Amino acid sequence: MELTNQVIYLGFGLIFFGLCFSPLHDLQHQFSLQSSVHYWAFSLVAMTLSCFFFFLFPLVGGLTLTFGNLMQVAAGGGLGLLFKSLNSRIKKSLLISFCVSILLLGVVAEFIRANSAYDVRVELLSSTLIALSLWQLYELAIQYLRSKSIYIWFLILAIAAQIVIWSYRIWVVDQYSSFDGHNSIYDEHIPEFVARLLVIILYALIFIAIGNYHYDWLITRERERRQDKEEQMLTALKSLASARDINTGNHIVRTQKYVKVLAERLKEMGYRSDLLDEKAINAMYRAAPLHDIGKVGIPDNILLKAGPLTSEEWAVMRTHTFIGESVLKASAESLRVRDRVIESAIQIAGGHHEKWDGTGYPRGLSSEDIPLDARIMALADAYDALVTSRPYKTGWTHEEAVEEIIGKKMTHFDPTIVEAFVIEKDAFNEIARRYQD
Fold it and tell me: Which residue in 55, 125, 321, 348 could disulfide with 9, CB within 3.0 to 4.6 Å?
């Protein structure tokens, strides 16, 4: 039994030691009372030392048993502090009380080891660990109500199981307390040994779950950081596009809503369901305001000209598609942001003036070679241009615009998108009326 115990404690000591590297690597140079990583690292180091002290006990004896028990309690207290730090601020007074309590417990534990029976030591240690586990459960319950994390739920189950096992261990040690030679963990009977082994296994699972929870949190934080960066970039680009747009801000609102209505109708029709899931439609909706961002590179004398453009001026105006595509690609690369919204914006900016029959610009793409996002935007932008009045033209009626778009089915516009438009023509009319200039 002695050799078995030593092998187990050495093995788990090495496991806990290996688990230490992750939180220790994440530690900042300056200690912070509010950093959960510090308490995670402390608990792992304490548990590692506990196993190594128990491993050394048959070789050294004496205080190593007390230190082993004390480090196990310290690990439990560290877990309590870790879980509390997830919910509220850790006060310096709590940390001082924790350190003082560990020292006092060490003195009491050594006194009991030297002067009392084995069952008294087990009852003291197990009762202390049960109390700490109840504190851990309280803090975890609060966190679970907030996060609903599966890792938190697993921790609750594992710690509850530890409480049951420690309670059982108190009972079973009492049953064997009258046996001679029952002086330490190396003199235990099989039920006691199994209970202690299960507790150590649960500790290992608890620390692994904490690691998974921590890195899940890191991934979530990185995703949120990237989303914030993307949102800031999109906001800046939208402001830039609006500043150079001869249309009003309502043009952006209307075209966004037209695009969403068309995309959702196409999805209901079963058209390109591989490209029209909910996330793709939302990305298209958010990207729509950037369709004419390339106009930032068009000179004012052309962009703001009240009359018709000459052929030379029109050639310059057409470059806004390439400019917009390039601006968006460069912005995404400089900020290292590239997701569905940016991809959609790039496709829309570069392709919303392409035509189904290949007579559009800038590349002369035709049919389904034109990105779907750009084909949808093309119809939405065309409808808004037709029904909106400008200083140089009077807006068409809704009926005239519908007739014009139907007439350009298979030439300018994707026929399936035109079908979706016809179904949703009343929705288009309502959007144009509600958000008119």
Answer: 55
